User: Which sequence fits this backbone?
């Protein structure tokens, strides 16, 4: 089946997009997109962890205006959310990364393009409007390839580098393997050459970036550098010491190493360790505006949305992405209003409680 | 299908009424009535939370008389329970609010009429017998409309105002949206005019009541004022300071903001904070007489029953409501007898234990 | 279908007897026997609670002889288990209480006959062999009826009175009500007259025994008196103070008041409160020899087995009861052997651990 | 059906082998192999317990080489894993123990042969390559039979004795009994004579080894002696005091006594009690390389793999075993790489966290 051209009336939340995408996508692509590592326990934990915190609303608060702006890296974002750098978006819809960028732009939401995008990075950023566009970097085995990618991204207008550090080797994608997934014709990582991908554990480890590599990159670009994929408190502290602009607390949506804790479970531990003057983003498992509210309360400055991009693209292309983002915006605003928070700065752990039934 | 004219022999408890209602109601109405906000986690928590406390019965206690009377706002109620102000009761049965009032009157149970009743408030109270009848108020965008409603309620004979403060904006009723629910012909909020309902977040927030509004209402009526929808301990204390007559600890049956804690989980925290000399009612999730017993033990003076009104109306009209209330009365009396409590004042946390299996 | 005449090879444990009984019994009788009060949460808790304690076996212990004898009320029992006083056993099998007595006698297991037995108490005890036979007493509304029952039991040779104190009123047997259960022709409480059963809450409470009644009974019989149905620690202490011979920690298999804690959860609290020199039996939820082991470790002197009598009777009559009891004996012996316990006195909480996964 | 001759593409992990084995094996053999004692709660706990610990990965660690070698009893093993002594392997595949040995040898993994092997112990060790081969001993009722077995094992070249101490009597294999399992023609314990197996509890206890038996064995052989089946901390300490070479913390895969704790739950308690200078192996429930990582972090020097041998043999014979072991090797290496552990010695509880959602 192919994607729909209007939004069905029975799509009320992100889970509904997932339901549609499962129907509309070929099975192997579906399992590649929806699947995760091994037994997918981390993926499940990501989504269920948010229920651990209950919301405490406030009544009669007199809040009449909801302001969701946040300042990230010196730029004002209308909303504390960016699209995560999801690979191969043409798997979900022919419009691919251009489609998701159009959806993001329509909602004034920031965008992060993956190194493994199926569209040329220069083409995607053409559709950028006012919200920022960042580039996600997989360090390449050859330093010159890495440098070339950085320079292309800079030149094209990407305003930050998000270096993924949690996936030096491929995860155990058992579900994907069982489904026999291979990239279909016409979908490939067009911004790099195939020979750049190391094969096998040893080759991957040889090519893996180190703290030294990050230093080298920081010295080679004027772009702010964010490290994506931090879970250990110690790594968050090392990142801050190194002087990077920020981190993304993330377990890669559970796609790399199974039985890692839910990202959001590590957030407050990491925020406590690094202090308040350091940019922390968070991803993995956010499916509701209330999840965003909770992540912010627990220490995140903003969040990234990953798989739902693909669910929405698969269902209704760019229109789907825009609508999906609109749902999240509405849900966050409603949560803020009911909790008596007029601005992002008002969101704190005072609005959360953890009561075990 | 239409409602039954006798009570089927296999209705033994409130869950049985829910089962029948699901069969008898048109699907959209069913999902409007039974549904809740977003993923309905709060609705589920409301119902499952009571199992957290186990009952410790007492034997050979010599109790030979069970007295369930409570004094609420200076009036003696035969039972520590009122019907909650459920909107649009004609959705469940043609008799609507008159039907539920007849059922309540037959069992001598107090009644709260919703601003969004589908029957004129003057018509409903005509069926009042000895038990009290209160009016639930949604503050209207225009002060004069609010005042007019209050005066109509006073004039008609309602003896308290229950102001709902937890729903300044509509909840995310995902299930209801998917089911395509709209009010059918012949069912509407006949006590207000359509133009009084604000549309959209901004309009809702502009029209939302504040603590100042409550003060203004208290100055405009001789009726005691109860605030419905308190979850935060701080809001309970503010309410008491303002001088209202009481509060309803409630999350609106999970219909407004999902992932709020179960109402009953907040009860003892709130009772502890406000002290014993302040009226606390509680609703959300009460389906058994033992649930009423537990809510009273945890600090409530009385409870409200919501959705079961609709389940019972849909199943067997006024007769169903009367029977449903009778079941709750019998169940509470049995629980009191087995726990050795001759009167409501005897019910305390000494009869509860929380043992985790 | 009627009961089997041989034990099927696929009956390996008590749960298998339950499975067969469900197939073989008429549905209303099945739901009467297997059902419990309200939502049956206490019944479920009774069975699942045992998994809370894990067994710590001991190796190379040198135990070569397993002795399961216990002294109860001055009599040596070959096994720390008695058949509980289950009512109306002819519902399960035409042999009724005689059948279960034959099964118990074959395994040298003690027996407690219910006041609500469907067979004359004199007839049942005719089948007694070496193991003790006790009589369970429901106090009757008229003292002379109570006294007459006691004297009949004494005269017939029952050697203890087990007075049930936790069921002054009938439980909310919702499942039984939905199934439309009534006693079939030929099954009735032949030891009492129908007029002795009070109807309605008030009549039940008027007829309910008190601590004073127990004193009166103790003064009227030379038989040792055991109170069955104690859950509150305070009631256990009152019972000991009154001078009864012992108690049964029991929630009546979850048949009276739902959401009571599992019996076994209260055991160690009660044992700690009353000290070691007081007889404590325990029932509700025991389905494995390892459950017996755990109950003894937590403070019970012996346990009662209830519903499994009916499952086994329904499946294969007296033979089924004997085999069911044999399974429990084998399972307890195996558990003792693997835990290095040569005798009942060796069983203690040292063999238990509570590790949460 | 018979075993496959190639590895199906949809086998990505050990659970996939289990799925295939269930399809390929006759039902009774399947239930014998896959089943466990009683309600199989311990078996389930073994597998689910690992999820209690979440992995904390480290990024940018600079690890470029993964060394999985461990020294066990003075011999270097390429991998901290051995095949557990699973009985009657011809049930799974005609190649039986020879098949599993071939698979182990192909992956350079150590091997433990069961006393209840369905192949002569001399024939199996013929297929040994560089990795060590140990012999599992069930102490026989007659000391001369025991001694003869030990001497055969020594003479054949087995380099350690693993004495199983947790199964002096047969477990309650309810599932196996219901399935009517009996050893099929051509599968038997060829290394012992049938008359050596005691029948019944008393005979089993009479024949059961004691601490004295272990001393006697240690005095009769130059082979290092390991005790398999230790769960109690006290038994671990007694074993160390006696001077054995090591222990296997194991609950026999849940096949002996149900409701024992998961083996891995006892690991750190036991390691803490016996100190670091004592060999501890662990089995029961390991199905992932990450499980091995966690067991090592919690105190094991190496682990044993049991049922998966049979799953893999049944699916694809020796090739299946080799592939199954290869999966575990790859998974452990990946886990080590992502956690920044270059060697087994780097694995510690610092890489684990226990966060409850």
Assistant:
């Amino acid at each position: 089946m192919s994607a729909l051209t209007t939004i069905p009336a029975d799509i009320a939340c992100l889970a509904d997009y997932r339901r549609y995408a499962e129907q509309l996508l070929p099975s192997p692509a579906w399992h590649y997109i929806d699947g995760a590592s091994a037994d997918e326990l981390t993926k499940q934990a990501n989504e269920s962890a948010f229920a651990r915190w209950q919301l405490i609303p406030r009544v009669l608060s007199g809040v009449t205006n909801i302001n969701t702006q946040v300042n990230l890296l010196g730029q004002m974002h209308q909303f504390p959310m960016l699209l995560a750098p999801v690979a191969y978006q043409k798997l979900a819809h022919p419009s691919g990364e251009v489609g998701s960028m159009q959806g993001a732009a329509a909602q004034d939401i920031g965008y992060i393009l993956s190194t493994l995008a199926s569209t040329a990075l220069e083409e995607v950023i053409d559709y950028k409007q006012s919200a920022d566009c960042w580039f996600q970097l997989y360090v390449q085995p050859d330093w010159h390839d890495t440098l070339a990618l950085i320079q292309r991204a800079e030149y094209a207008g990407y305003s930050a580098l998000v270096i993924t550090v949690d996936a030096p080797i491929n995860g155990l994608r058992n579900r994907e393997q069982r489904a026999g997934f291979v990239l279909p014709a016409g979908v490939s990582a067009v911004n790099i050459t195939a020979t750049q991908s190391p094969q096998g554990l040893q080759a991957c480890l040889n090519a893996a970036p180190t703290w030294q590599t990050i230093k080298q990159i920081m010295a080679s670009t004027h772009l702010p550098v964010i490290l994506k994929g931090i879970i250990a408190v110690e790594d968050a502290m090392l990142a801050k010491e190194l002087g990077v602009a920020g981190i993304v607390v993330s377990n890669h949506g559970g796609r790399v190493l199974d039985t890692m804790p839910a990202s959001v479970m590590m957030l407050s531990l990491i925020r406590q360790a690094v202090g308040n003057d350091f940019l922390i983003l968070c991803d993995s498992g956010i499916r509701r505006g209330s999840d965003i509210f909770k992540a912010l309360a627990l220490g995140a400055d903003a969040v990234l949305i990953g798989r739902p991009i693909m669910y929405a693209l698969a269902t209704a292309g760019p229109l789907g992405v825009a609508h999906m983002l609109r749902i999240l915006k509405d849900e966050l605003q409603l949560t803020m209003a009911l909790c008596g928070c007029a601005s992002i700065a008002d969101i704190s752990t005072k609005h959360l409680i953890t009561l075990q039934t």
Notes: The longest strand of chain B covers residues 225-230. The two ends of chain B are 43 Å apart (CA to CA).
